[in-house]
Amino acid sequence: MAAWPNPALPLLLVAALLPLEDWLTTPSCPGGSPAASASGDLRAMMVADLMLLGSDASYVDRFFRDHVMSKFFANSIKTLKPDMIVVLGDISAEGSELTEKKWISVIKQFVGILGHYSSLPIHIALGDKDIGACASLDGKLVHRMAKHLPGLDSSGCAAFEISNVSFVSLNSVALLCGNNALRYDVEKVMERESHHFQRERLYGAECYPLGCEKGEAFADLSWRRNLMESGSGPVVLLHFPLHKFDGEVTGVPTFSEGIVSDHSSVSSSSEQSGAIGRRLYDHLDTLPANSTQYILQALKPRIIFSGHADSFSDFIHADGTREVTVPAMTWKTRGVPGFVIATFDAKGDVTLRFCCLAQEWLVIMGYLAFLCLTAVAIRWSN
Questions:
Q1: Burial class for 205, CB neighbours closer than 10 Å (0-12, 13-18, 19+)
Q2: Which residues are within 8 A (CB) of 355 and not within 5 positions of it... i.e. 6 or more apart?
């Protein structure tokens, strides 16, 4: 059996490989080191479109892509210290075609990628690759998928609160469909949450576990007559972005900015930026106009996070509602993979930090360069 020419060489190679891997898998987050979270702040890591294959994953996926993705998550979480992880749909590449057993294998694959960070609170929304398009959308399938994801009801929706931040997660795939029972179920969720937030915001001081003193006024609450101020509702989580109406030019797409804070980020150049934003969305599937209006009017979202995109975008709708679109965190699309860190402070402000990951070709070139240097080192030691 051949021995290493120099006994210390393997240790030197390992010592060189570890910092190389760390460099290749550290996210690029413009804006310098992250500020420490204040007491009461909530920091969420927003990712989308992982497109995992579960038990159908190839050897390349299992032993290369999953390994690198695990390093990406570990370095990102260690550096940015999120309190929770949100997946904005399409955790699976072909979930609608999978058996329940294979769907569970996708969830296990994601847990394996996260490693010990899977102990963080995690919310996973459903996307079109998870449950299929309108033609094949089935309530039984959605229920079968949703029951394995924390917090989702049988329609694929959820409402929850962490650190005094309220979230409403909607099955936006169902909202693409016309006469579909799931769509009506999602609309019922929106109506229920609209009533809840109107009661909490408007009559919170006069409401008790057994009801409100202003019973007649509460009975008249309707999403169409929602008196809440824009931005006073929950954080809304979607897979599909909202519809962009004609003439809506207040968008602020930011493809490389590190930190974007509240609505004061809208500058005098917003008209030009909005046009760019609309062109970005021309190539995406978005929710219909009526569903968009329904969400904006019924929920008065504090901010909206959506996925199903190749690029990061930060957009202000005409009513002042802010929508942040998170790019796919996978190498299977043509865009640059990335994620968003959202910090919700006690004052109600939201600070964003967009981070991008290395392209697959760069990671491969890094490993190939290491192999070449290894071969040179072995030859030189001889």
A1: exposed
A2: 27, 28, 29, 76, 80, 338, 339, 340, 341
* Rg (alpha carbons) of the chain, rounded to whole number: 23
> Residue 237's closest CA among 310, 174, 318, 325?
325
* Orientation angle between helical segments 181-203 and 289-299, nearest 10 degrees: 30
Residue among 17, 161, 84 nearest 343 (CA): 84
Q: How far is CA 361 from CA 18, 23, 231, 335, 368, in A?
A: 19, 15, 41, 13, 10
Spell out the SS3 assignment of 127-173: CHHHHCCHHHCCHHHHHHHHCCCCCCCCCCCEEEEECCEEEEECCHH
DSSP string, 291-360: HHHHHHHHH--SEEEE---SS-EEEE-TTS-EEEEPPBSSSSSSS--EEEEEEE-TTS-EEEEEEE---H
359/96 Cα distance (integer angstroms): 28
Give the residue from 157, 221, 150 showing the smallest Cα distance to 184. 157
Identify whether the C-beta of residue 182 lies closer than 8 Å to the C-beta of residue 171.
yes
Task: Identify the burial level of 369 via C-beta atoms within 10 angstroms of its C-beta, where 0-12 means exposed, 13-18 middle and 19 or more buried.
Answer: exposed
Tokens 């693409």 correspond to what residue?
A: 176
Q: SS3 string of 368-381?
A: HHHHHHHHHHHHHH
How many Å apart are CA 3 and CA 266, to the nearest integer? 64
Q: What is the pTM of this model?
A: 0.82
Structure letter (DSSP) for residue 25: T
pLDDT at 248: 56
- Evaluate whether 144 touches 117 at the Cβ level (below 8 Å): no
What's residue 166's pLDDT?
94
Count of residues for the chain?
Answer: 382
Q: Identify the helix (H) or strand (E) that includes residue 46.
A: strand 42-47
pLDDT tens digits, one per residue of 49-74: 999 998 888 888 888 999 999 999 99
pLDDT beneath 70: ranges in the chain: 1-16, 31-38, 201-227, 246-284, 377, 381-382
Distance CA 268, CA 289 (A): 27
